[in-house]
Specification:
By secondary structure, the chain is mainly alpha-helical. It has one domain. It contains three helices and no strands. The model has no long low-confidence stretch (mean pLDDT about 80).
Length: about 70
Amino acid sequence: MQRDNQARRNRNSVAGRERRNGGSSGTARQKYESYLVRAREAQSAGNIVEMENCYQHAEHYLRMMRAVDAGT
């Protein structure tokens, strides 16, 4: 129970911070897919730093989706 509350607070905190910083309010899956697209575009453009950045963000949203699926 305590773990569920912590996970919920973490998700709410991230969502609120993104809204305050002008981020989109899409689902974790939408953001995951968006970052994958951006990473591939950066790779095509030869921007390795941006590619790695986008893959790291995509991985973050993948972990979030897995946590939600696992019920944590």
